[in-house]
Amino acid sequence: TLDAPALEVEGVSAGYGPTAVLREVSFTVPAGSVVALLGPNGAGKTTVLRAVSGLLPVRSGTIRIAGREVTRERAHRRFARGLCHVPEGRGVFRGLTVRENLVLQAAAGQEDDALERAVAAFPILGRRLGQQAGTLSGGQQQMLAMAAAHVRSPGLVLVDEASLGLAPIIVDEIFEFLRQRADDGAALLIVDQFARRALALASTAYVLRRGRIVHGGPAADLLNSDLFGSYLGGP
Ligand code: ATP
Predict the structure, then answer these.
(1) In a 3-state reduction of DSSP, which class is residue 129?
(2) Is the pLDDT of residue 139 over 70?
(3) Buried b vs exposed e over 174-194: b needs ≥16 C-beta within 10 Å?
(4) 118: CA distance to ligand 1 center in Å?
(5) What are the strands, taking DSSP E only, across the chain?
(6) What's the CA-to-centroid distance between 235 and ligand 1, angstroms?
(7) pLDDT number for residue 226
(8) Is 18 in the pocket of ligand 1 (CB under 6 A)?
(9) Dihedral sign of CA atoms 179, 220, 155, 26 in order
(10) Which residues pair with 170 in a beta bridge?
(11) In 119, 148, 167, 172, which residue has its Cα 20 to 30 A from 181's Cα atom?
(12) Average pLDDT over residues 68-82
C-alpha cells in the first residue's frame, strides 16, 4: 500500500553458520525517508543490509518491503519489488564499460534516459562511457555504482559504506546525489563510517551494537547525545 513503510524489520535474528550476529533486530524506514544505521566495527550493520536484501537468510523475524512480507523471498524478487543494494566495495561490473553498467539496469527502451540522468548527476561519467569500470578511480566507481543503483528509481536503497576510502570532496558529491534522490522520494538506509554525514542526511538514526539495536530516534538527537561522542564520532 502507498502509506506502508518502505522497510519494516521485526525481531530479525541472523548469523553465519553457528555464529549469531543479529539478535532480535527491529527498525523501520518510513516511505521516502532517510534512516542511518550506525555502530562500531563488527556490530552487524553490513549483516543487516544483507538480510534485508535477501543475500543472507534470517533465522527468525519478519522483513516487509512496502508493506509486503519478503522474509523468505530470494534477492532477485526483492530487487523486482524496488529494493536496491549498493554493497561495500561498490558492486560495479568491473569488466563492463560505464555505459554497459548503466544500460544493464535500465528497462527496455529506457536506456538513453538512464545514461542521460547518470551523466547529469555525475558529468565525469559522461566522459568515460566507453571505459571499463574496473579502470575508473575509486570515487568514479562509487559514482557509477550510485548512478546505476538509481536508474530504476528504486523505492528503497541500501547504501553500505559509500564514502569508504574516498576524498572528502567526492564524498560530498555522493551525499549530495543521495540527498537529491531522497528529495525525489526514494527511501534510503545508510550505513557509513562518516556518522556525522549520515546523520546530516538522515531524519532517523538507529545504533547497532553487538547485533542489537541499542538506540533509535531522531538523527539530530543522536548528534548531540553521549552515544555519539563515545563511539560514533568517526572522521
Ligand atoms: P564493519 O563496519 O566492520 O563492516 P559491521 O557492523 O558492518 O562492521 P558486519 O560486517 O555485519 O559488521 O559483521 C558482523 C559480525 O559478523 C562480525 O563479527 C564479523 O566478523 C561477522 N561476519 C561477517 N561476515 C561474516 C561471514 N561471511 N562469515 C562469518 N562471520 C562473518
Answers:
(1) coil
(2) yes
(3) bbebbeebbeeebbbbbbbbb
(4) 32
(5) 7-16, 19-29, 34-38, 60-65, 68-69, 83-86, 156-160, 187-191, 204-209, 212-218
(6) 21
(7) 75
(8) no
(9) positive
(10) none
(11) 167
(12) 94
Pairwise CA distance, residues 2 & 67, whole Å = 9
Predicted complex ipTM? 0.92
- Is 70 exceeded by the pLDDT of residue 219? yes
47 CA from centroid of ligand 1 (Å): 6
Q: Report pLDDT for 48.
A: 98
Cβ(19) to ligand 1 under 6 A? yes
- Decide: 17 and 69 in contact? Cβ < 8 Å: no
Give φ, ψ of 38 to 5 degrees. -115, 170
Cell output for 55: 543475500
Residue nearest to atom 9 of ligand 1 (CA): 44
Task: Inform me whether the pLDDT recorded for 234 exceeds 80.
Answer: no
175: three-class secondary structure by DSSP: helix
* Ligand 1 touching residue 56 (CB < 6 A): no
- One-letter amino acid at 217 equals G
Average pLDDT over residues 192-218: 93
Contact 67, 4 (CB under 8 A): yes
What is residue 235's predicted lDDT score, i.e. its pLDDT?
45
The neighbouring-strand residues paired with 70 are none
